[in-house]
Amino acid sequence: MTPDDRDLAKSLTLAAVAVICAVLSATLVITAGEALLAPSLPTSAAQAPALTNTAG
Fold first, then answer.
1. Residues 10/16/17/23 CA torsion (nearest 10 deg)
2. In whole angstroms, what is the distance from residue 24 CA to residue 13 CA?
3. Which partner for 47 in 2, 18, 39, 42 could form a disulfide, CB atoms 3.0-4.6 Å apart?
């Protein structure tokens, strides 16, 4: 394996680790956000206000 190949392999490894970290971070942030916002949002259609047609 040439030095250039080693550098390429290291770069690809670092890029893969960066992508995995970004996906895990995004998942954690989205999950935490949903957990914090879920109690304030209606969970079923029965709790949501009904829309009525007022345009005659």
1. 170
2. 17
3. 42
